[in-house]
């Protein structure tokens, strides 16, 4: 998935986030890859968000926790 926040005038992305998530049959996250653009001088992987998701059932609480962890800008 890729989501972007477009500039109102140009439509070009100001910031964006992409993720690739592999689930097992029980909806537990096997692997997660999260990348962010436009939030720093260079795109980066949000490793803390990835770690917050892996091994968990993918639900709203897991996503919220990963978003909070990922706010550390790739730490």
Describe this structure in words.
With 75 residues, the protein is of the alpha+beta class. It is built from two helices and four strands; from the N terminus they run ββββαα. A four-stranded antiparallel sheet has the order 1-2-3-4, covered by helices on one side. Strand 3 and strand 4 form a beta hairpin. Helix 1 runs antiparallel to helix 2 (60-70). The radius of gyration is 13 Å and the shape is elongated. The two termini are 21 Å apart.
Summary keywords:
75 residues; 4 strands
The tally of beta strands, per DSSP, is 4
Main β-sheet: number of strands, strand sense, barrel status? 4 strands, antiparallel
Low-pLDDT residue spans: none
- Order of strands across the widest beta sheet? 1-2-3-4
Can you count the helices?
2
Give the radius of gyration: 13 Å
Large-scale geometry: elongated
Amount of beta strand: 35-45%
Assign the structural class, choosing from mainly alpha, mainly beta, alpha/beta, alpha+beta, or little secondary structure.
Answer: alpha+beta
- Termini separation comes to 21 Å
What is the residue-mean pLDDT, rounded to a whole number? 89
Summarize the amount of helix as a percent range.
10-25%
Instruction: Name the helix and strand elements from N-terminus to C-terminus, one letter apiece.
Output: EEEEHH
